[in-house]
Amino acid sequence: MAMLQPHTEWTLEMVHALPDDGNRYELVDGELLVSPSPSPRHQRVLGRLFTRINAYVEAIGGCEAFVAPLAVTFSERRELQPDVLVWPLRADGGEVTSFADVGRLLLAVEVLSPSTARNDRYKKRPIYQQEGVPEYWVVDPDAGLIERWRPGDAAPEVCLGTMEWRPDPERPALVIELEAVFARP
After folding, report:
1. Residue 20 domain-assigned?
2. What pLDDT, in 10s, does the model give residues 16-62?
3. Closest to 83 (Cα-Cα) out of 62, 94, 61, 68
4. What number of CA atoms fall less than 13 Å from residue 120's CA on the CB side?
5. I need a surface site. Which of 40, 82, 150, 175 has the fewest CB within 10 A?
């Protein structure tokens, strides 16, 4: 395989031409972010969190949850693949086939790994805030906490013990017991 050549400005076309090699490729304002395959610990935490979010979303209706990889293309210079995402259903009831069908997220979640922590906190977080994503969660398995970011926040709300998520004020909140999410096998 040819070595990737450094570029000062990546495009979606260039990113989409990269091989399907087990890495996750994301684009942040023209910069290519490459994440290797996650660890078993990452996947356990991700699975537990997704299971809770997905069951809640299915119960309340009006939106759907997905686990990575699934592209969220904000622009020609911004395409991310959060570990978990929730987007609304289409108003006309049609199937959502891509982010472009709905154009917004209700939630984006990243589970930290040593190789992704810096990007998740300092490169992706501002993008989610600038794009108006109502909640961005940075899940820290080692610390046993979740940082909740909203647009305009200068600092996160740090959630320990339990956290609540309420995408629709007319519906009951999802209450997540973090000890169960972060439990070791």
Report:
1. no
2. 999 888 788 889 998 898 887 888 999 999 999 999 999 999 999 99
3. 68
4. 24
5. 40
CB neighbour burial string for 85-95, b if at least 16 within 10 angstroms, e if fewer:
bbbbeeeeeee
Q: How many domains does the chain have?
A: 1
Sequence letter at residue 130: Q
- Which of 3 and 14 is assigned the larger pLDDT? 14
Q: Which domain holds residue 172?
A: 38-182
Q: Compute the Cα dihedral for 97, 128, 33, 140 and give only its sign.
A: negative
**Which CATH number characterizes residue 78's domain?**
3.90.1570.10
Q: What is 69-129 written as a DSSP string? A: S--EEEETTEEE--SEEEEEPPTT-PPP-SGGGT---SEEEEE--TTTHHIIIIIIHHHHH
Per-residue confidence (pLDDT) for residue 1, from 0 to 100:
44
Give the C-alpha separation, 34 to 11, whole Å. Answer: 14
Mean pLDDT of 157-181: 95
Grouping H, G, I as helix, E, B as strand and the rest as coil, residue 54 is helix
- Does residue 1 lie within any of the structural domains? no
Asked if the structure places residue 105 within a domain, the reply is yes
